[in-house]
Amino acid sequence: MNDCPVEVYQNPGEFDQLLARVRALAPTRVLEIGSMFGGTLWHWMHAAPRGATFIAVDMLVSQSDPRYVAQKSGHDVVWAEWARELGHHLTIIADDSTRPDVVSYVRRIVEKVDFLFIDGGHSFECVLADITNYRPLVRPGGIMALHDIDLRGSGVPDAWRQMTDPQGRDAAPVFEEFVEVSGDRGIGVVYL
User: Fold this and answer.
1) To which H or E segment does residue 86 belong?
2) What domains, with CATH codes, occur in the chain?
3) What is the pairing mode between strands 53-57 and 89-93?
């Protein structure tokens, strides 16, 4: 993660395990929900073969937030430069991933993805909506990953448990968890 030009908000040990799986997948179609400054997006771009398609759905923070300028710069300039340099196609949607018109738009521009990374809103309802709306886009043999599956105080752990509960109707058949420090972050990977 040291060579990435922007902040990557991930536990390095957990992220390295996920990144190894993404590199092995060599995805040509990637959907990321929640990109902030683009640190994970940068890594996905470097793990993909030239000509891959990327969709980043990322709601900007408030203009009064000190992170706004850096995030807006990523949206407006930086990420497109990365995509151009690597020969990728990039679509940035600066909006709420759970809005029905956003979901419809994503479904219109990509039929299936190889890799889906969800790290958007952290309420139970938001995470569940992102899973429900975007998991069907992951092709058979693809990967879906969820960040913060062990983050105390967020709804992500409950959504993850619901998705991986073997008693659940839509339970994930094969999954892995990368959690280095209990109660802090964690990444869940579902193999579809």
Assistant:
1) helix 79-86
2) 12-191 (3.40.50.150)
3) parallel
39-81 pLDDT, tens digit each: 999 999 999 999 999 999 999 989 999 999 989 888 889 999 9
Strands in 138-147's sheet, in edge-to-edge order, are 89-93, 53-57, 29-33, 113-118, 138-147, 187-191, 174-178
* pLDDT higher than threshold 90 for residue 95: yes
Query: Which tokens belong to 16?
Result: 């390295």
Q: Which of 117, 116, 119, 121 is CA-nearest to residue 99?
A: 121
| Amino acid in the structure at residue 74 | G
Dihedral sign, CA of 29, 32, 36, 40?
negative
Distance, first Cα to last Cα, the chain = 27
Q: Are 42 and 20 contacting, i.e. CB atoms less than 8 angstroms apart?
A: no
- Indicate the SS3 state at residue 29: strand
Q: What is the pLDDT of residue 169?
A: 61
- Residue 26 Ramachandran class (φ > 0 left, ψ -120 to 50 alpha, else beta): left
DSSP state of 104: H
Q: What is the pLDDT of residue 171?
A: 62
Q: Residue 89 pairs with which residues in a beta bridge?
A: 53
